[in-house]
# Entry
Amino acid sequence: MKKIFLALVILVSVSFSGEIKLLENNATDPVYILPLKKYPKWLCEAKLQSGKKVQFVSVKSMMTVYHHQPYFIHHKFLDSNITKIYVQDYLTGREVDAKVAKYVFGSRIVGPHGDDLIPFSNNENAKIFMLKNGGTKLLPFEKLSKGLIRYLDM
# Structure
């Protein structure tokens, strides 16, 4: 169990371009057990109270853990609560505070584990994306409920 936990809690850095960079090549997502290095465009990151960082393969995965932190702490996938969460703007690749990002729901783009939310730093980037790839709604962070994340995972 400790080996799995160590593989999940990885050190990352932010490059000068503001992208979320993967430092550990064999790290996997704590929810879907997918290799993070295979999906660099989808990487999301959470900073824990302990100072450690955990990466996820997509917004859906990160929000699953965010909404169920007590479960993941109890089962030793997290060592403390999440204090900050980050996503990458799908168009620019720039790191964005997940709580200020905008999310496209219902596009033709499929994430690493099926239907997912596509993050953007602003409404303009999201609308450009929606013109090309569709999308039924543009959502703020506050609308990313447990129910919505569960629906995406059906």
Q: What stands out?
A: The CA atoms of residues 91 and 128 lie 9 Å apart. The two ends are 28 Å apart (CA to CA).
